[in-house]
C-alpha cells in the first residue's frame, strides 16, 4: 500500500511539473516566430531537454550536439515524445500531419515552432509544402520528418512514404537517418513509450508519467546523398539503414555527455543554421 501511494504521488508530482512546463512553453511560444534562428534553436533544445527531465526520459546513446549537419533528418516514429528527443540532439523544424494542428495546446505550440503541416490525400497542398521545405532548407534550416507517417511499437519499421523525402531530393542535401528505440528501467524494450492504436494523448502521457524511468537510444547511420537518388531509392535506403541499426540495439549505461549544462547561444552559432 505504501509503495503504491508513493508511486501515485510521484506520478501526480510529475504531472504538475509537466503542466507547469507546458505553460512555460506557451509563454516562450508567443515571441518565438520573430526570434533569430540561433535563439530559436537554443529554446527548442533547452525546452525539449527539460521536458525529457520532467518525464524522466534519459537519452543513453545519441550523436553529440552539433554532430548532425544534414539538411534533413529522418527517423522511425514510436512516440509523441520523439520530437523532444530529436530536438535535444539536433533542433530542427518538422513536417507533420495536419491533424496535429488541431490538438489543443500541442497543435498551437507546434505551429509557433514553425512546423509545416501536410494534409493527407491533397497532392496540391503537399506539393506546396514541399516547395516551402525546399526553400527553407536552402536558407539553412534543417528539417526532421517521420517517413512512416504513423507510430509503431518500436519492434519494426513501417513502410516509408517517399513523398516526405522529396524536398531533400529537390534541394540536393544530405539526409541523416536516425534509429530510435526506448527501454524500461530493466533494460527491456519499453511497452509504455509507444503511442499507437486508439490510445489517447492523455492515456499515453499518464503511462509515461507513471513509469519509473525510460531510456532512449538514438543511433545515427551513414548519411545519404539525396542528390544521387530519387525519392523512392532514398526512402528505401533510409529504411534499411534504420532497420539494420535497430537490429543491433542493446541497452547501455547512461552516456548522456552531449547534454552539457554549460550549453550557450555560442554553441548554437556553430551549427550553421
What would your notes on this structure say?
The protein is an alpha/beta fold and about 270 residues long. The chain has one domain (about 1-270): Glycerol-3-phosphate (1)-acyltransferase, CATH 3.40.1130. It contains nine helices and eight strands. Strands 1, 2, 3, 4, 5, 6, 7 and 8 form an eight-stranded mixed β-sheet that branches. Helix 4 links the parallel strand 3 and strand 4. Helix 1 runs antiparallel to helix 2 (about 35-55). The chain is globular. Mean pLDDT is about 90; it is low at about 250-273.
Largest sheet: 8 strands, mixed
Q: What fraction, in percent, of the residue positions are helical?
A: 40-55%
Estimate the mean pLDDT confidence: 89
The CATH class, by name, is Alpha Beta
3D shape = globular
The CATH architecture assignment turns out to be 3-Layer(aba) Sandwich
**CATH fold-level topology:** Glycerol-3-phosphate (1)-acyltransferase
Ranges where pLDDT stays below 50 over 5 or more residues in a row are 251-273
From the N-terminal CA to the C-terminal CA, the straight-line distance is 52 Å
Work out the helix count. 9
Helix and strand pattern:
HHEEHEHEHEHEHEEHH
Amino acid at each position: 500500500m505504501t509503495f503504491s501511494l508513493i508511486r501515485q504521488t510521484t506520478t501526480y508530482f510529475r504531472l504538475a511539473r509537466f503542466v507547469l512546463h507546458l505553460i512555460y512553453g506557451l509563454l516562450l511560444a508567443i515571441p518565438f516566430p520573430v526570434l533569430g534562428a540561433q535563439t530559436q534553436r537554443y529554446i527548442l533544445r533547452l525546452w525539449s531537454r527539460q521536458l525529457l527531465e520532467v518525464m524522466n526520459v534519459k537519452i543513453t546513446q545519441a550523436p553529440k550536439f552539433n554532430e548532425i549537419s544534414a539538411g534533413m533528418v529522418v527517423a522511425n516514429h514510436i512516440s509523441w515524445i520523439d520530437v523532444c528527443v530529436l530536438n535535444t540532439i539536433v533542433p530542427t523544424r518538422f513536417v507533420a500531419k495536419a491533424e496535429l494542428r488541431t490538438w489543443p495546446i500541442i497543435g498551437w505550440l507546434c505551429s509557433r515552432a514553425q512546423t509545416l503541416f501536410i494534409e493527407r490525400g491533397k497532392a496540391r497542398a503537399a506539393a506546396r509544402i514541399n516547395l516551402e521545405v525546399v526553400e527553407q532548407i536552402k536558407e539553412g534550416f534543417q528539417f526532421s520528418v517521420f517517413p512512416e507517417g504513423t507510430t509503431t511499437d518500436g519492434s519494426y519499421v513501417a513502410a516509408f512514404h517517399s513523398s516526405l523525402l522529396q524536398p531533400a531530393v529537390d534541394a540536393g542535401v544530405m539526409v541523416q537517418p536516425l534509429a530510435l528505440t526506448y527501454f524500461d528501467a530493466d533494460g527491456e524494450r519499453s511497452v509504455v513509450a509507444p503511442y499507437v492504436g486508439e490510445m489517447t494523448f492523455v492515456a499515453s502521457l499518464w503511462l509515461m508519467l507513471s513509469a519509473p524511468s525510460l531510456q532512449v537510444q538514438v543511433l545515427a547511420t551513414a548519411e545519404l546523398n539525396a542528390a544521387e537518388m530519387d525519392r523512392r531509392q532514398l526512402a528505401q535506403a533510409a529504411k534499411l539503414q534504420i532497420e539494420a541499426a535497430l537490429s543491433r540495439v542493446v541497452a547501455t549505461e547512461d552516456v548522456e555527455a552531449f547534454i552539457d549544462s554549460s550549453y550557450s547561444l555560442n554553441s548554437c552559432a556553430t551549427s550553421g543554421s
